[in-house]
Amino acid sequence: MLSFSESGCNGNAPPECRIQRSRRRSISLCISDDGAVLVKAPLFMSDVAISKFLAEKQGWLDKKLKEAAAARQEVEWLGSFSAEELAAIRKRAKEIIPERVAHYSKLSGISYGRISIRLQKSRWGSCSACGNLNFNCLLVLMPPEILDSVVVHELCHRRHMNHSKAFYAEVLRLFPDYRRCSAWLKEHGGVYLARVK
Ligand SMILES: [Zn+2]
User: Fold this and answer.
1) Domain locations in the chain?
2) Which pLDDT score, from 0 to 100, does residue 5 have?
3) Which of 26, 32, 59, 128 has the fewest C-beta atoms lying within 10 Å of its C-beta?
4) In a 3-state reduction of DSSP, which class is residue 61?
């Protein structure tokens, strides 16, 4: 049994640790949706080596477990969105998002096709090969700069259909605060998605 420090699990029982072996080259660590520790390891890595890796990552793991527990608690407190709330969110998104896209399009000279606004559980935005943009309506519940950072990200895919250095250079030129916003979305976005039934 692998042990975890008290702090990582709010003093409750240690989190479950699942080890998944596959034909991969490196070992990786994440927290699953149900709060378990998920270790993805190469087929022939020994248990001792996995334990050593976990011990090295203890500090990082404790921090992530705390964050995940706080997020689950927040979702519990806030509850799921009602149908009325979701309708209001969609309506607001249809007003605000096209306006933000138009703003950054004008600023950058980047054109776009149609805009669709949906409630999605897996993504914040996307850009099709023909320039149609798609956004998650939940973005309008977040601080305004977070929505803007996603708008700029998708618009810049019109110039670079990848996540290359050139793509990020373009994003940062148009939106210097991008890295902070992107980190915010990674940390807090899950709570918004988890509130959709
Ligand atoms: Zn992208």
Assistant:
1) 6-78, 83-194
2) 38
3) 26
4) helix
Å from CA of 157 to ligand 1 middle: 7
CA of 166 to the centre of ligand 1 (A): 12
19: CA distance to ligand 1 center in Å? 30
Strand partners, 30: 38
Helix residue ranges, H only, the chain: 47-56, 58-78, 83-108, 144-156, 165-174, 178-194
CA 163, 169, 170 angle in degrees (round to 5)?
90
**Distance in angstroms (rounded) separating the CA atoms of residues 189 and 176:** 20
Q: Chunk the chain into consecutive blocks of 10 residues (it has 197) and report each block's average pLDDT, rounded to whole numbers.
A: 41 78 93 87 94 94 89 90 96 98 97 96 92 97 97 97 96 98 93 91
Length of the chain in terms of residues written: 197
Chain position carrying tokens 């929505």: 147
Concatenating the DSSP letter of every residue in 114-163 gives: -EEEE--SS-SEEE-TTS-EEEEGGGGGS-HHHHHHHHHHHHHTTT-SS-
Looking at domain 83-194, does it have CATH number 3.30.2010.10? yes
CA of 152 relative to ligand 1 center, distance in Å: 10
Residue type at position 80: S
Distance 102 CA to ligand 1 centre (A): 19
- Using the mean position of ligand 1's atoms as its centre, give its distance from the Cα of residue 34 in Å: 27
* Cα distance between residue 42 and residue 63, in whole Å: 25
What integer pLDDT is reported at residue 72 of this predicted model?
A: 87
